[in-house]
Amino acid sequence: MKTARYAALLLGAGAIALTALSGERIFAQANDPNAYPNPYQLQENWAKLPAGRTWGSTIGIEIDPDGKSIWTFDRCAATNCLGSTLDPIMKFDPNGNMQIKFGAGTVNDPHGFHVDRDGNVWVSDTVAEGGKGQTVIKFSKDGKYLKEWGKKGTGEGEFNRHKRSTIAGLLATGHGLRAFLGAPGGTSGA
Fold it and tell me: Distance between CA 82 and CA 130 in Å, rounded?
């Protein structure tokens, strides 16, 4: 009898332990965000590029203010745009159809990219060569050149290999250029 009670006690303790462990596993899965199904699917070649055009190093992707379209800024089907005649700025509709492309010949080394709430496109270029570069350029949503800031150097209104923070500095001050983030002493008025 003692053996039967002892066996029953061990079986009962084992059942309680298994229940506790399975409950912990269920609880952990319920709180694990990776345990939920993934509703997204990879769509190869979603963006329809012009015939013969390939992607380069894409340095920026932004959602249009319409909440549906996608903007991209790539390095002209290469690692930079030096000597390229390709448009590095492209906008695609939700089905991947290109809506607009522009910016050919305006940048050497695409680096910073932002689409503001009005749909204006801001880009920066970190390489000065061929009479362009070391600039931040603002385009309208239709690709019209609006304004440009900077030139190579370290003085007032000049850039020295600026990064994305320069665009943040421009946006923080609205349309007037007042200060640049991340550049000691890098201030300018516009």
Answer: 9
- Domains plus CATH for the chain? 58-161 (2.120.10.30)
pLDDT tens sequence across 120-170: 999 988 888 888 888 889 999 999 999 988 777 777 766 665 544 455 555
Decide which of 13 and 81 is more confident. 81
Answer whether 152's CB lies under 8 Å from 133's CB: yes
- The answer to whether the CB of 157 falls within 8 A of the CB of 188 is yes
What is the C-alpha separation between 28 and 37, in angstroms, rounded? 15
Q: C-alpha 185: how far from its chain's center?
A: 28
The 3-state secondary structure of the chain, one letter per residue: CHHHHHHHHHHHHHHHHHHHHHHHHHHHHHHCHHHCCCCCCCCCCCCECCCCCCCCCEEEEEECCCCCCEEEEECCCCCCCCCCCCCCEEEECCCCEEEEEECCCCCCCEEEEEECCCCCEEEEECCCECCECCEEEEECCCCCEEEEECCECCCCCCECCCCHHHHHHHHHCCCCCCECCCCCCCECCC
Residue 178 predicted with pLDDT over 80:
no
CB 79 within 8 A of CB 56: yes
List 121's β-bridge partners, or say none: 115, 139
